[in-house]
Amino acid sequence: MPAGTQIDSRAVIDPAAEIGQRVFIGPFCVIGQNVRIGDGCRVESHCVIDGHTELGTDNVVGPMASLGGPPQDLKYGGEPTRLVVGAGNSIREYVTMNRGTTGGGGVTRIGDGNLFMAYAATLAGHVEVGDHASVGAYSGVHQFCRVARYAFIGGYSVVTQDALPWVITVGNRAKTYGLNTVGIKRQGYSRETIDAIKRCYKLLFRSKMKLEEALEAAEAELSHSEEARYFIEFVRSSKRGICR
Question: Closest by alpha carbon to 231, among 213, 205, 210?
Answer without folding.
Answer: 205
